Amino acid sequence: MFFTFRGMLWGICLLLTVKTSLAFETIAKSAIILDLDSNITLMEKNADMALPPASMSKLMTLNMVFEALEDGRLQLDQTLPVSEHAQSYDGSTMFLTTQDKVSVEQLIRGVVVLSGNDASAVLAEALSPDGTERGFADMMTKRAKAIGMTNSSFANSNGMPAKNHRMSTRDLAILAQRLISEFPQYYGYFAETEFNFNDRAPANRFNRNPLLAMNIGADGLKTGHTKEAGYGLVGSAMQGDRRIIFAVSGISSESKRAKEANRLATWAFRQFTTVKLAEKGQLIGSIPVWLGPSKSLKIAISSDIELLVPALEKDSITSSIVYQSPISAPILVGSQVAELIVSVPGFEDRKFPIVAGESIEEGSFMVRFKAAAEILGNNLKNRIGNLF
């Protein structure tokens, strides 16, 4: 790897999210694909459009449940009553009745695997500040804003059609990222392929996520469908050390949804690759120093640098090192003195700190006197030159 040095004033700017706008057509009304580790958006289409999410919004209900489990407001083996309101839901259900007392874990599996509208309502009423599903929906909306989901609002817990029940695919991707990263102890539920609750409806026991059977490393998360919303899916898959997250909405049929989700995931894995650019502690050159016994400072990479790049562009990576010249002694080994700017075609530049590879003590009085005299002499020459 070759480095270009540029002496100038620099500021720390480590990018947390990098976007690329590589062209990829999709039949979905809205879509987004993220690479989880690098937090790079690989592709997006109308990703901020607020659309009816159907059952994909149950992921937000599950987020609220997982948070409650973590802070002790719920326990997995705790049983909850079924209200008449929860029992009244049709569509995808666990076929719960008001005579049931169902454990939280069973309800979670009912939401994930069976997409139970009734199960979502039972959990919602248990956590709602006023005991109603409407109160829980308001709580979900407030919580969504707090975790960065800016295009989401909820009218219920399960995604049944409602005027103000909307989510964007970007928000769905943010939510999926959170469920995977923050709640790994519960994420295994999303990979379950069937759940037969008390033999209520054996034919309805199978997970609706078509990706789980496609051998592409998929292990979640949730499908959705209503007449208003069309067919949608929030998915995640892992191949090797790479995990991707994707969300699609507004597809016209169940079969097209399965095919398109598979196509998006396959594209994301095949068109991008991880490249190791440098190792922690690797010396990459030197930069000028003044007011010290040495006139140059060895510089090093502060941490391993691995980047996700388009597969066909891995030989087109360029980089430059930006620093304030000259840097004055004393300098401690490991202190940041510059930053590395890496450019990859199709991506925004990414920036990484560069540190001192050695310590340089402050120079003696004579060293500093000579440096000051040199600067004074250079300034005097410049002034004289400007007079003629």
Structure notes:
The two termini are 45 Å apart. This protein is 28% helix and 27% strand. It has two domains: 4-16 and 276-382, D-Ala-D-Ala carboxypeptidase, C-terminal domain (Peptidoglycan synthesis regulatory factor (PBP3), Domain 2), CATH 2.60.410.10; 23-270, DD-peptidase/beta-lactamase superfamily (Beta-lactamase). A hairpin with a 2-residue loop joins strand 8 and strand 9. The strands form four sheets. Strands 1-14-16-17-12-11-15 form a seven-stranded mixed β-sheet, with no helix packed on it. The chain has a six-stranded mixed β-sheet with strand order 2-4-3-9-8-7, with helices on both faces. Strands 5-6 form a two-stranded antiparallel ribbon. With 388 residues, the protein is an alpha+beta fold. Helix 1 (58-70) crosses helix 4 (117-127), helix 3 (104-112) crosses helix 4 and helix 4 packs across helix 5 (133-146). The chain has helices spanning 58-70, 84-87, 104-112, 117-127, 133-146, 169-182, 184-187, 254-270, 365-387, and strands spanning 4-7, 18-19, 30-35, 40-45, 79-81, 101-103, 218-226, 230-239, 242-251, 272-278, 283-290, 296-301, 305-310, 318-323, 327-328, 336-343, 350-356.
Summary of the model, kept short:
Helices cover 28% and strands 27% of the residues.
Shape: elongated
Average pLDDT score: 88
Question: What's the number of domains?
Answer: 2
Question: What structural class is derived from the secondary structure elements?
Answer: alpha+beta
CATH third-level topology of the largest domain: Beta-lactamase
**Major sheet summary line:** 7 strands, mixed
CATH architecture of the largest domain: 3-Layer(aba) Sandwich
Distance between the termini: 45 Å
Fourth CATH level, the homologous superfamily of the largest domain: DD-peptidase/beta-lactamase superfamily
What percentage of amino acids are in beta strands? 25-35%
How many DSSP E strands? 17
C-alpha-based Rg, rounded: 28 Å
Order of helices and strands: EEEEHEHEHHHHHEEEHEEEEEEEEH
Low-confidence stretches: 7-18, 384-388
Q: Briefly, what CATH class of the largest domain?
A: Alpha Beta
Helical residues, percent: 25-40%
Number of H- or I-type helical stretches: 9
The strand order across the widest sheet is 1-14-16-17-12-11-15
